[in-house]
Design brief:
The protein is built from 6 helices and 5 strands; from the N terminus they run H-H-E-H-E-H-E-H-E-H-E. The protein is an alpha/beta fold.
Length: 163
Amino acid sequence: MTASQASWMSTYASQWVIPVAVGDLATMVVPQPFLDFSAIFERSADLIVEIGCGHGDALVGAAAGHEETDFLGFEVFEPAIGSTLGKIASSQVTNVRLIAADAVGGLTYLIPDHCLAEVWVFFPDPWPKKRHHKRRLISPSFVDLLAEKIRPGGWLRLATDAD
């Protein structure tokens, strides 16, 4: 983590990173009550989730252009979270929150059914070797989970460069 990323983490994490209960692995979400997004964002608005938001370019850019919508990013890589926090601060957006945890457990244990307007998955790690298929994010069981969490008429936006 760079000095800037560490500074943004220490300065802004308490404001924009939602604390969640995790297991033995720091990114593994455990069963807990669903999050109340109306309370978290202090309003009622459409909610878009980006899985693996990286350094926050798409997430913060979209939030800046769509102030009427709330955005939630899942990311496990702490330096990327630090960078995203820096972008949130410099953009002065108020409609973004982050969860520093695995998205599969997060969707399962934190997100109520049928509450998401959209889910974005942009260029997930493809794990291209056959022996790694079990590690791929996009799988029939994951798509079933998304179907439970996305409201009727909602969207899954997926982009990949993998085969």
